[in-house]
Design goal:
By secondary structure, the protein is an alpha+beta fold. The protein has 3 domains: 2-108, Methane Monooxygenase Hydroxylase, Chain G, domain 1 (Up-down Bundle), CATH 1.20.58.410; 119-216 and 307-356, Alpha-Beta Plaits, CATH 3.30.70; 227-302, Double Stranded RNA Binding Domain (2-Layer Sandwich). The protein has 9 helices and 11 strands. The chain has an 8-stranded mixed sheet. The protein has a 3-stranded antiparallel sheet with strand order 6-7-8, covered by helices on one side. A hairpin with a 5-residue loop joins strand 10 and strand 11 (333-334).
Length: 364
Amino acid sequence: MNVCRACWSGWTSSGGVFDLPGKQERVARLQQESLAPDFWDNSQEAQRKMQELSGLQEQIRAWDTLRQRIVDGLELLEMAEDDPEMLAELEQEAHSLEQELERREFELALSGKYDRGAAILSIHAGAGGTEAQDWAQMLLRMYLRWAEKKGYRTAITDMTEGEEAGIKSVTVEVDGEYAYGYLKAEKGTHRLVRISPFDANRRRHTSFAKVEVMPVIDEDIEVEIHPNDIRIDVFLSSGAGGQNVQKNATAVRLYHIPTGIVVTCQNERSQTQNREMAMKILRGKLYELEQQRIAEEKARLKGENVQADFGTQIRSYVLHPYQMVKDLRTGVETGNPQAVLDGEIDIFIQAWLKQQVGQEEIHA
């Protein structure tokens, strides 16, 4: 019954990552807060805390049940040394426990504060002109197809097209359960190697595009944006020409003066809607900036060399001279790049998320 013993060892290490005592302490604190007379004065904040409490209680129950199943199995094992039928049943239970343990461990990588919510995905063409801009459009298609397979809703909030082909940049809101939790695995630089369709000499080209992912931040979180720190410009939205050209200035560009962040939104119908969407994106960018600052400070204190997320190559897509997509962080690869470009990217996302379990920071 070595498999069952392996389950126990696996749970022991994963239980440490889960931090059961810490979760129980947080539950007790939330329960105490909920008893305060003024708890429901701020109904939005109260609902958020009650949702957190309910989620934590469910997690604790699930891990307690898993632990008890393992303890029961080990106790039965001691009594089943000479009972082949019971040993066979326990072997099946051990395999079931291993699968459940693996599923629970994977969920740990999706336990960040904003993992369950929507995401704001941005793609920027790197150096290389038309080649890189075409690659950025290929990535946009890949993510839109992935989102469609997941049943997520997508809305392009801003897009700048290339002069000849492709796009210079695009911002997409992806709305669905765990959209940010999954897409945070895609942050970084994506590299394409192929025979260029824009090169008359059919030479091989390497192109780069940067992917940014931010969570959609609710109004009530701790990201403060002071009105004096923002400059707002309005301008005419770009149209298809003729009767479709907007006559009113509905597009919005926000400049966040302290950080230099610029956000543009022009795809909504009204200036108010564009301003609200731009503020949502800015809030997400500021949150990511703060998370990056904290991560870099922790790495500095540890004496590590810090590299910024942006500009770091995470995955290579090779279409020539051979066919392969390889994630450089996890080593996961596939010889079917067409399927990947059609949105089959879960193997890379899941491998990266599993890799985060046990590391100090899984709430990027």
